[in-house]
Specification:
single chain, about 110 residues, mainly alpha, 3 helices
Length: about 110
């Protein structure tokens, strides 16, 4: 190589997309958080009925037809509380994911290219 010639600098290959294991964990967590939030909502609404922490409005209790009612007159309340718990659960999942991603990312910016 001559004095005024430059060699070719090869950059390491950049991986595109997310790792497949993160897609699988995300799918499992979506289902798991939804199921856990409904179960937690059911327990919280039952405990609220026994202890009377919060008075549930009659609009949220719902007026379901007698055929559909199977001992669940507070279905709308459970769904509302499950929605709130799901938002909290997904928020915690995002925080944990960002911490894991931050610790597993390369320290030097040149490693990205």
């Amino acid at each position: 190589m001559g004095m005024y010639e430059r060699g070719v600098i090869k950059k390491p290959e950049r991986r595109e997309g997310t790792h497949p294991i993160w897609r699988g964990i995300g799918c499992i967590m979506m289902v798991l958080i939804a199921v856990m939030s409904y179960a937690g909502a059911s327990l919280l609404v039952d405990a609220n009925g026994k202890h009377g922490w919060v008075q549930v409005p009659s609009e949220l209790r719902g007026s379901l037809p007698k055929i559909i009612i199977s001992g669940q007159p507070v279905l709308y309340v459970e769904l509302f509380v499950a929605f709130i718990l799901a938002i909290v659960g997904f928020g915690l999942f995002v925080i944990v994911y960002s911490l894991v991603f931050k610790t597993s990312s390369p320290r030097n910016r040149t490693d990205y290219y």
